[in-house]
Design goal:
mainly alpha, 2 domains, three-stranded parallel sheet, 3 strands, pyridoxal phosphate, AspAT/PAT-like
Amino acid sequence: MAIDSMFKQMKADGVDVIGFGAGEPDFPTPDEIKEAGIAAIRDNYTRYTPAVGSLELRKAICGRVKADFGLSYEPSQVVVASGAKHAVYIAMRALINPGDEVILPAPYWVSYIELIRIMGGVPVVIETQEADGFKITAQQLSDAITPKTKAMILNNPSNPTGM
């Protein structure tokens, strides 16, 4: 939350800054998306899709990943999430058992700690500094790893630092 407070203060001081603390767009939904939504409602395309995502969407994702990255997956290997928080929850649910440690660089997205704890995991926070570009040193990582370490959450660019 310190990053969000810093953002708000900078904004109040007239600094032209972009906040990465919340995933709320600052622009309206494009007209073509609005029209597609209206058409879907008119065509009664209003049912729930499978929890893992529609087959059509999962096939399209496989095609895109193949075209962009040269990686081949089957639709059965793809799970569509309703957002980043849901995707991280799914990953934590699959990986973390009670007592497992999860390394987490700080500052971190506010939900990470609670997602680890919900699974019975133990967050191991590595403090980083703005002066160092919020980078983790090899020594910090080595010190954080124990026999109970199961995972590390490392996203790029990081929310909330953008680094």
